Structure formats: structure tokens, C-alpha cells
Amino acid sequence: MGTKLTIRRTMPVAAITAVLVLSGCVSQQAQMEAEKRDMALQEREAEIKKAEMALKAREADVVKQEKMAASATTKQDYFPPTPKPGQCFARVLIPATYGTASEKMLVREASTRIETTPPQYEVIDEKVLIRAAYERTVVIPAEYGTKTEKLLVKPATTRLVPTPPEYKTVTKRVIDTPERTEWKRGSAVVDGALATRIDNDTGDIMCLITIPATYKEISTTVLAKPAGTKTIDIPAEYRTVSSTMETKPEQIKKIKVPAEYRTIRKQKLVKPAGKKTIKIPAEYKTVTKRVLKTEEKITWRDVLCDVNLTSQTITTMQSALAKAGMWSGNADGRLSAGMMSAVNKFAKSKGLPFGEHYISIETAAALGVK
């Protein structure tokens, strides 16, 4: 019974030790698996290279066998089948064609990995009471104000005051110089023009004119109001007296003081430590290799020759090549190495049969040769 109790008490330490040992074992196991995968990959690549070398040797054997079969043909095979007059044929070697094939190869098999997940915690805020709510007594002092009062110092009275005489200025208009008459030299119309004399023998022309009278203003001061007396009202006199008086009596008030709290931040276990198995998918590698599509063969091909290759035919092909943008020379009806290169380039772009030393009938037809 004592042994069981001891084991239970030491379980947390043992669990931690087991996790550490397990993580070390897992890392060593993962390293060993990686080394095994690398070795398997190297062995697989060596097998691929070996297979490619075997394929190349097989292709060489096929070519050799075809050449031997061609040399063993009968004399009748050296002539094309069903020829027509005016046709030319050439025995040409059509090389083998190759393509690429992709193959999916296993590099690393699917496996599993055990990982230890750490415990997860979250930070929470907890509200802790520091001081409970309570009541406290507050004395509100009395309030005072100022009272203003108006007191009579001297009552209102009247007083008799003498008034001085009042004068005014009167302005009169009088004749300064009376109206009179005077003789003055004048002019009259004589022979259609103004002149001061009628002729040289007579005297000056004299006119009696009236000079109006002139006036002037004379100002005199006259009595408007004689001297007298008047009654003046003397207002009462007052004095303002200020005194302090109580407007609100003293009060006693109870105030509730709320409780005080403090926020404490601490960690809370959300998810304990554990283990999880991770599936590692298999890894594949796509290997592209060269495969034989059509084998090499020797066949008869309908071509242009000295029987049907005339200067007019060459001129027609040169014009067609120039129109297609593949010939920059003159349409001179002569067959040159440059023209043969242009013809082969044209045939290749159209997918027609071509060769370095001949022009196929299909290519010639595409260039307008009938």
C-alpha cells in the first residue's frame, strides 16, 4: 500500500521525464527515417539511370537491325512501286522519331509522426475586493449672505433761488445811402454799330441812370425777462447699510463610499499537454524519359529531279517563298543552297516532307508547282 502511494506522488515527475525521453526518441527515429528515405531515393535514381542506358542500347540495336534488313533486300526493292512516266523518286532514310513519357515514381512512403503538444494557457483578469463599501458622515457648514438696507439721512426740502434778468438781441434793417440818379457815358447804335458818339462834331452820348439805395443791419439789446426768483427741490439723502445674515443652516449628511476593487492578471490552463499523430503523405517524383514513337525506315519519296525541275518551276517556287517571307533573293530560276534552305524551312513550317538534298512533290505543290 505504501509503494502505491509513493508511485502516485511521483507521477508528475515521471510523466515529464517520459515526455522528454519520448521527444528524444522521436527525433532520433525521424532522423533514421530520413536517412532511409535518402538511401531509397538514391537507389531509385540509380535504377532509372540503368533503365535509360538499357533503352539507349535497345535503340542502337533496332537501328543496326534495320540497316541489316535494308542491305538484305532484293533487287526489286530498289525500284518504287507503281511509278508513272515523268515522276522521279528518291530512296531516303526517314529517321526515327522520339517523344517523352512521364512516370510517377515513389520517393518516400507514407508514414506517421508523433508530436507532443504543449499545454495551452490563457491570461484572464480577475477582480479582487480591496475595501468594502461604507458610509461616512459629512458636516455641511451653514451658508451666509449679505443683506443691503437703505437708511434716510436727510429728508427732501425746497429752496428759493433768485433768477437774473434775461436779454435778447433785436436786429433792424435801415437805409445806409438813399436812392439817387447819375449821368454816365454810354453807347448807342450808329450806322449799325455801337459807338460812344454820333459823330466827331457832337459830344459824348450821356445816360441818366438810377443808383438804388443801400441798407445796413443795426443790432440792439432789449430786456426779454426781468429778474425774479424760483423754487428748487432738494432731494432726500440716503445711506446704504450692509449686514451679514444666515441663508442656509448647517447640515449633517451621510455619504455612501463605494467598494474598491483591483484587477489581477493571471494564467489559466485551457488545454493540458498531449500527443498527436501526424500523417506524413507519400512523396512522388515525376521522371520524364525519352521513348521511341516511330522507328527509322528507308522509303521511296516522290521528288523533283532534272526531268521535272525546270527554271520555270524554280522561279515559281522562289516567288512563293518570297511572298511567304522566306526568300529575299531574286526569282532567277536557279537552284542554290540558300534556296534549298528556304524550301526546307517552308516545308518544316507546313509539316511537309523535306530533306537536305531533295524537294518533295508535296512541298513543290504547296509552293504552286503544278
Please give the structural blueprint:
Elements: H1 2-9, H2 11-71, E1 88-94, E2 97-108, E3 111-117, E4 120-131, E5 134-140, E6 143-154, E7 157-163, E8 166-177, E9 180-185, E10 188-190, E11 193-195, E12 206-211, E13 214-225, E14 228-234, E15 237-248, E16 251-257, E17 260-271, E18 274-280, E19 283-294, E20 297-303, H3 311-323, H4 337-350, H5 361-366
Question: What would your notes on this structure say?
Answer:
This protein has 370 residues and is α+β, with helices and mostly antiparallel strands. The protein has 4 domains: 1-83 and 95-110 and 281-294; 111-131 and 264-280, no CATH class; 139-156 and 235-257, no CATH class; 304-370, no CATH class. 28% of the residues lie in helices and 46% in strands. It has helices spanning 2-9, 11-71, 311-323, 337-350, 361-366; strands at 88-94, 97-108, 111-117, 120-131, 134-140, 143-154, 157-163, 166-177, 180-185, 188-190, 193-195, 206-211, 214-225, 228-234, 237-248, 251-257, 260-271, 274-280, 283-294, 297-303. It has a two-stranded antiparallel sheet. The chain is flat and about 175 Å long. Mean pLDDT is 78; it is low at 1-26 and 72-76.
What radius of gyration results from the CA coordinates? 72 Å
* Helical content (DSSP H or I, runs of 4+): 25-40%
Instruction: Output the number of helix runs.
Output: 5
- The proportion of residues in beta strands is over 45%
